[in-house]
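Key result, reporting period 2: structure in, sequence out.
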């Protein structure tokens, strides 16, 4: 039987659980990528939250665990795919940030133009039916 990890679980079983955790990360990352491709930023954030929870859980499980050669190879393959997804997600987020920046810039220019236009409007003449101010004929 394989030796036990610090929590008493056999290393082979813990390795299986850790690798399953990396497969879960890959699924979360694929869901995040799908949401980014659909411009569904709210869904992306929800998946990102699950991704972060899984990363934290994996960090605790994997502490002090030495994977065997097969496990290291499997983990490396999963991480490579996760990083590929992450790269595309980041590219899409950067493009979205630039798009939002352009929209904000257009809105600011429109706001400034509106203010400039309003400042050049002639003052409204007083309504002849209005009561005169005290002390004014």
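The corresponding designed sequence is given below.
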């Amino acid at each position: 039987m394989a030796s036990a990890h610090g929590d008493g679980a056999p290393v082979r079983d813990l390795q299986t659980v850790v690798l399953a955790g990396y497969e879960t990360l890959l699924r979360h990352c694929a869901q995040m990528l799908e949401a980014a491709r659909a411009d569904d930023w709210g869904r992306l954030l929800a998946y990102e939250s699950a991704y972060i929870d899984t990363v934290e859980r994996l960090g605790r499980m994997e502490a002090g665990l030495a994977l065997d050669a097969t496990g290291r190879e499997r983990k490396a393959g999963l991480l490579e795919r996760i990083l590929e997804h992450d790269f595309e997600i980041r590219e899409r987020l950067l493009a979205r940030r630039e798009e939002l920046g352009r929209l904000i810039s257009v809105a600011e220019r429109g706001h400034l133009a509106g203010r400039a236009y309003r400042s050049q409007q002639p003052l409204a003449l007083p309504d002849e039916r209005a009561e005169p101010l005290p002390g004014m004929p």
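The first helix runs from residue 11 to 37. The two ends are 107 Å apart (CA to CA). This case is discussed further under Risks and Mitigation.
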